[in-house]
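2OG-Fe(II) oxygenase
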Amino acid sequence: MMALYSKPAAFSAGECERIIAAITAVPSNDAMLVGQTKDQSVRRAKLVWVDDVDGLGWVMDRLIEIVRKSNAVQFDFDLREFAESPQVASYKASDSGHFSWHSDIGDGPMARKRKLTLVLQLSLPSSYEGGDLEVMPSAQVLSANRAQGCVSIFPSFVLHQVVPVQHGVRHSLTLWAHGPAFR
Ligand SMILES: O=C(O)CCC(=O)C(=O)O
Ligand SMILES: [Fe+2]
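Tokens:
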């Protein structure tokens, strides 16, 4: 099983900029971890829940189709629902934006059912330095494609991190697909 599924150009540059503009217009929260504790040594980012933003329904429609396809060709997980709103994170160099190594499976009622994690690169790669999404499905660390509009999908139990942003701002969108426990 290839652990990192990648779909370049899933969204156009114009579409990514529209999403960034829409989330920039609403108030954001400091990033919470899966257990809802705020530990800024683990993560520093601003978050907006996509479900709170009007006019972004088309984004979810596109993402659902991409998850369905990736699951059909690669993961074959028993997926049942999208139980949480997608979220857009903004990692700023001026805030030491980053997210240390973690898995997305947590103790909460939703976080325990996460099975696939999808990340959409919203920012133009040349607009920020650092901020790579790294995924560790086995002994080797893989860097996700930084291209704007590229979608990466991996099992939610796989360790991953966002290295510190050194310059500029990186915006990314994360969505989880949920289902019953692995057996
Ligand atoms: O921003 C990213 O690339 C990853 C975000 C992430 O790992 C998460 O929200 O759990
Ligand atoms: Fe994560």
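Residues 102, 104, 117, 160 surround fe (ii) ion (ligand 2) (CB under 6 Å).
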